[in-house]
Amino acid sequence: MHPRLGTAGRLLVLALVSALGGPARAAQDAELDSLLSRALVLHQSGDLEGAAALYVQILRVVPRASRVRSNLGAAWAGLGRYEDAIDQYRQALAQEDDPSIRRNLAVALVRTGQIRDAAAESERALLSRPDDRDALLLLADCRIRLGETQAAIDILKPAAAAAPDDKALAYLLGTALLDANLTGEAQIVMDRLFRDDSPESHVLLATMHERRKDWESALAEVEKARAGNPSMRLVNFLYGECLMKERNDWAGAAAAFRKELEIDPNHFESNLLLGTLLREEGRHEEALPYLTRASRARGTDLAVQFSLGAVYLGLGRTAEAEPLLEGVEAAVPGHVPTHMQLAILYHRLGRPEEAARERAAVQRLQKDAETRSFQGVRESVSDLIGKSAGPAGSEPKTP
To answer: Domain extents for the chain?
Structure first.
């Protein structure tokens, strides 16, 4: 997000000052013009602290200068002060409904994990400016993060058809198609634009192998992607998932998920799986922030509800654990680990009959030849990922 205040912006600021009147108007105009010039130079040279200080100084005199306020938001965002940036962007939009400011607001919202709000803002920006490719990519990315894969595909397909050589569009479309298990369509996209030895091509191939549960092939592609660009989004997540599935390397997987979250703090699966691994080690306090972040992105996902409920139970926060675990049981009555957690919960709440009922359910399900034998909570969570709690009163579904 770069400063976007040029000559027209300076004239707007000076016009606002002139409208205020005053005996020292000319001198004030000159001073503000000088401050703006210095602020832009500092911003463009990377001195964001210095630029922000000057923007604040200008806004004290001209609080309605929306472009200056937007630049202040960009400076705060560049310094990692995303909440401050969001505040400035919202104030700027109240003064001027500019799609570029709205798009920058959406980016800052993504960085703070407010994905649904980010999707709404990027969609508004795209409606105002339908040819804004960055807003379209941002909206599609938000839809994928929210698990709304079909919506992302619907956004990306026409854009990719109109710009068949745009690799960013094709990569995001390929990712969405793979998320929807439409591997045939994804393969067409990949074959057209990702025949090279790029990290992007290896990530898409790894994702395709992962969807087919071919973990050995997926790991080979991820290793190539890591060699080419270890900081690329999804590379470390896929590596961690392969370590879990192919090598049973839980410590290596946790380290990989942490690396993914250094690059993308709001990646849903990395937050969920890292939180689950920490919980399995009894590190409930450490697990909670990761699972909370996953819940912000996809609060209706049953894997999130189960893991978060189990963490609350581990922390003794039974009032928060109870509705989450009971909700999972209602949606997936055959899920053994949920019954185990509920048995513990009811015992702690002094409800022995309900605890006994849950223990009996565990024994019954474990004896059922058609019920999957769980190998621990790590496996149980993977069974729930992607399943959402249905509306109240809907028929529960058995996995």
So the answer is: 1-96, 287-399
Topology of domain 1-96, CATH: 1.25.40
Q: What is the pLDDT of residues 327-380, one digit of tens each?
A: 999 999 999 999 999 999 999 999 999 999 999 999 998 887 444 443 444 445
Nearest of 347, 292, 360 to residue 324 by alpha carbon: 292
pLDDT tens by residue, 281-322: 999 999 999 999 999 989 899 999 999 999 999 999 999 999
Sign of the C-alpha dihedral computed for residues 323, 329, 335 and 340 taken in this order: positive
CB atoms closer than 10 angstroms to residue 186:
23
Q: What is the pTM of this model?
A: 0.80
Contact 74, 1 (CB under 8 A): yes
Work out whether the CA dihedral 126, 130, 131, 133 comes out positive or negative. Answer: positive
Q: How many CB atoms lie within 10 A of CB 31?
A: 15
Fold match flag (1-96 vs 287-399):
yes
**Helical (H) or strand (E) element with 221:** helix 215-228
Whether the Cβ atoms of residue 52 and residue 72 lie closer than 8 Å to each other: yes
Type and span of the H or E element at 399:
none
In this structure, the dihedral spanned by the alpha carbons of residues 264, 268, 272 and 274, taken in order and rounded to 10 degrees, is -20
* Tokens standing for residue 87: 């505040």
Task: Report the sign of the C-alpha dihedral through residues 58, 59, 62, 65, in that order.
Answer: positive
Q: How many Å apart are CA 101 and CA 98, to the nearest integer?
A: 5
Query: The tokens of 45 are what?
Result: 């040279």
Pair of tokens at residue 207: 């994702």
How far is the first Cα of the chain from the last one, in angstroms, to the nearest whole number?
Answer: 45
377 closest CA partner among 336, 346, 325, 343:
336
> What fold does the segment set 287-399 form as a domain?
1.25.40
Assess contact for 310 and 327: CB atoms under 8 A: no
